[in-house]
Predict the structure.
Amino acid sequence: MMTFDTLFAVPFLSGLLIAAVLSAVGVLLRLRDEWLAALGFAHLAGASALIGLAIHLPAVLGATFGAALGALIKTLGRFRGNSVYALMILAGWSISLLVAANTALGSAIGHAMVEGQLYFAGVPHLTAAILLAVATLAGLYWLMPIIIRDRLFPGHDAANRLPAWRWHLVFDLLTATSMAVATATLGLMAAFALVFIPPWLAFRLAKSWKQALMISLIFGTATYIGAFLLALRLDQPFAPVLAALLLVIAGGVRGHWKSREV
Amino acid sequence: MSLPLLNADGLVTGYTAPVIGPLSFSVTPGEVVGLWGANGCGKSTLLRAIANKARVFAGDLQRKPGLTLAWQMQQPIRLDEMPLNGHDYLRYAKADRETPPERLRPWLDRRIDALSGGQFQLLAVWAILGGWADLVLLDEPTNNLDPQGERILAEILKNEQGERAVLLVSHEHRFLEQACDRVIKIA
């Protein structure tokens, strides 16, 4: 019988809060057709976390700085489409590997950032996750109606001379911070899997917006718990187990749904 | 007589170069004004200029101070997958000025990506007309509508508009004559 060692309580809670945040933020990212933004911010976060570590800054802080910079560039530069995110991904990847190759950090830490190091999450990660969860709850309560209205009726704000860029910037910063904290805690691809796959499933199944949020949230957090326990039990790295579980379940359900329609 | 909500005087508008104008007209509270012209004459560009999405090259475009606008674009946004039902759509549009028309009600529980083109078009137009804006801009609102949908839309527009006004563009002269208080022809 497996026991849940208290040693894992802090990593588990940190990851759980982050999984809930990403599953919720991802639903809005998908509505805005900006899910690639999450991968762009995650790569910048990974690169800046490594730069931060090289100058003895905590990974969470370094990651947040880089991702927030990406959000500012995106909003203030008024970039349209996915090109800017592709550039962020390439820049983040290139910087990460070069920093890892040319500092004492070595490739081990670079790999840890990409593959995740959840079991080493400590109090700083949990603190960041709690702050992020509170900010997301408050931010989405205020932002969600504005973001949805802007997506459905994009001319409204301009027609009424409302400063829409401020809301976009706040949402971009929230997304960037979420991805930064998640990348520093769960790893880059685990963070991306949580922000992309639960909403992907929810958009297919939900009959209303509220249901979409609930499905994404429940699926994201439940799969996170399953992956955490499974990875411990099988002594496997957490991030690929999480991504595989999300893929198998969501792909299976969507496939089954599609076959019913045919 | 009430002050106009919108007044255009010798207005020339476009994007990188002028597309339409010069035009002079005004819209006062309670009016439903139609702008009629052939496809491609710049009707949508005129609405975009009023909604701050196109450039004014010459003339003057005055809006009543504090005027609120609602703008139904020619192609309302509709993604391949949208987990919003009709109730969600109207709620986020803040279309709670009055209860939706009878014809719309059976569709409100369905996801908007499952509606037909005509059903979605009527919902999208109502999302704008059912709101609280002082001036409603409708761009080709009869697109995709079947004759019954057109009739419902004309009835909504013929109802008392109160203190607000509606400015709609269409290439369908017959519909404009049926639904509007006056029609302005754009050369």
